[in-house]
Amino acid sequence: MPESEYRDIRNLDLFAQMKDEHFTALTRGAYVQNFPAQIDLITEGEPSDFLHVVLSGAVDLFARWNGRETSLETVRPISTFILAASIRDAPYLMSARTLEKSRIALLPSQDVRAIFDLDGAFARAIVAELAQCYRSVIKGQKDLKLRSSLERLANHLLRQQRRAGGAAAFELDFEKRRLASVLGMTPENLSRAFKGLRPYGVTVNGTRVTIAHQDDLERFAKPNPLIDDVSS
Amino acid sequence: MPESEYRDIRNLDLFAQMKDEHFTALTRGAYVQNFPAQIDLITEGEPSDFLHVVLSGAVDLFARWNGRETSLETVRPISTFILAASIRDAPYLMSARTLEKSRIALLPSQDVRAIFDLDGAFARAIVAELAQCYRSVIKGQKDLKLRSSLERLANHLLRQQRRAGGAAAFELDFEKRRLASVLGMTPENLSRAFKGLRPYGVTVNGTRVTIAHQDDLERFAKPNPLIDDVSS
DNA sequence: CGCAGCCTTGACAAATGTCAACAAACGTGG
DNA sequence: CCACGTTTGTTGACATTTGTCAAGGCTGCG
Fold first, then answer.
1. Which residue of B has its CA nearest to A124?
2. Residues B42 and B81 placed together within one structural domain of the fold
């Protein structure tokens, strides 16, 4: 593993505080691999052999049931995914595939569990990470159960706008068919939802979104820190 | 705190392995309280002052937005709730209220965090608990996004049947208006959904459900371990 | 008994999904 | 760089699902 990537991983909140020897042990059995876009990395139901770290690119976590499929989360660098399955030595609940060309580190789950038992700082970091993940899924649950698809889209746009710097015009960070799946609707419905937001000053051109009347949109979307804020 | 309740808490997975002195310190600032039914225990957005342990009764975790309300989880004895908020010292994402007369222990979040930093065994137990909670919310997310309300009800009945011992006839464990909220639909819709399951041999009388044709219902519901199993 | 809350039902409205058609964007190989 | 085919996005028409409102029955409790 190149020194720079070793550093990047080491600097993740999850690994920053652990003992050197433990981090070394953890990365000894690890390897880093490049994947093209649209490659399946893991499949739900399989045993969780590796904790994955996205070093570059992007990964989609999704699930299937009865012929249907839905996107549950997008993982962007630099962060880990399927920590919970690794820790519990339980089967993956979600499948993962690359969205773009991606570089991914794989740490054997077995080592993660072993070192988690030895290193208190690591255990605490895992707690912080899991608590964060948990809260973020709860927010997603609230978003889904309390809002209509139009409201979900409106709030998603406001969140995305903030992440992109806050300007009135910004780029969607993934293709619309996936956005539809993330928001829990069909692509056709998303198209119509965009049109439904026009009265609030939203226009779209390809992946470029412009919010002409910020106040109108916010009055409609009613964003709430307990659903829409990244931290907290 | 009575000795028997002290024991009950001590025996929870979360506390079983921690050092005696730490457990003592944790319970020193704690207190136990009885609440009647339908009492608000916490409100979303408030700082998380206490980790709660349900000793008896039942607690509903729910959330509101824009005048709507939804039930997210039911906590039954003996287990804790809002662990994630306590650990992160973040505001509650959900409100809680008693469903019945309940006995609840309150452990100061500050102490939980302090001892979590001192006690590796405790930290590990918290990890196990949080990973479990995380996975269970992900399952809920899949249930919501991949299934129609009729399918959600069918699978809920099968899960409930198993929990109740597996007999063809069993009791719903909460009132229908709440079940509707848990499943993400209106009470009216739930009524109709029950009728919609009649072709698969489901009949309801008050809170008593009978599944006459187990196979038919399962063929329709297509239960899946990665969504419906409690553990794993 | 009489009230209050829950459940059910019907009629209707709104939201969302499906299917088909087509246009636009993209990538590949010539 | 173009031609081609594939994928993605959009739109319309329509079906299905879900929600809303209003009414009435049932039950439990004071």
1. B123
2. yes
